[in-house]
UniProtKB/TrEMBL annotation:
Keywords: Membrane, Transmembrane, Transmembrane helix. This is Uncharacterized protein. The chain crosses the membrane at residues 28-46, 52-71, 78-96.
Amino acid sequence: MPDASRPLGNLIFRTLNTDGRRHPLQNVLSVVTIACGLIAFVAGLFPAAHAIAAWLGVLGFVGGLYSQYVSATTPERALNIVGIVASFVGVAFGIYHGGFFP
């Protein structure tokens, strides 16, 4: 079991590199996209966090589109799409609950 001693971060980036080459920029962009999307989605469920949801949703959406443009492997693209959709829903909830400013 050689992978048991590796940190979790290496396993995540290893599964995104299915072509055998390293893509550090694309991997980081994909992970940031999914993180922004999930945070925006969860924050969008709470009306008091509408500004966080709106701004992180826009950041995740625009960053996800760029990440999708420069992505190199299929798992990166799949992560980008999930992050982009979550960001869009998060920004929609954020705008519905009050917009970009508190």
